[in-house]
Amino acid sequence: MKKIAVISAILEDPSVCQKEFNEVVATFRGNVRGRMGIPFEEGVSVVSITVVGKLDDINSLTGKLGNIQGVTVKTAISKMEI
Q1: What interhelical angle do 14-27 and 55-66 show, nearest 10?
Q2: How confident is the model at residue 17 (pLDDT cuts 50, 70, 90)?
Q3: Which residues, 6+ apart, have CB-to-CB distance to 1 below 8 Å?
Q4: H-only helix segments in the chain
Q5: Do the beta carbons of residue 73 and residue 25 sit within 8 Å?
Q6: C-alpha distances in Å from residue 72, one per residue of 14, 38, 75
Q7: Phi, psi of 10, deg, nearest 5
Q8: Which of the residues 14, 40, 59, 64 could staple to 45 if both were Cys, CB 3.0 to 4.6 A apart?
Q9: Model-level pTM greater than 0.90?
Q10: What's the pLDDT at 22?
Q11: According to CATH, what is the number of the domain 3-81?
Q12: H or E element, residue 29
């Protein structure tokens, strides 16, 4: 069964980590339903990604994003299965 999740990420220095971040997200494009990014003048970006998928896929994406230098990630996963 699939679940809905929101992955929140803070990119502390987007000029360094944004390319790798985008490449990882692109590999999960079949799961991504929406994405919003907000750049801050202080040199930080906040990204929110809404995904639908199996728990393993959601956790895999979260883990890969969290392993990128300069990226902090938290994920909220629905209790309901769809």
Answers
A1: 160
A2: very high
A3: 54, 81, 82
A4: 14-27, 55-66
A5: no
A6: 12, 15, 10
A7: -115, 120
A8: 14
A9: yes
A10: 98
A11: 3.30.70.1150
A12: none
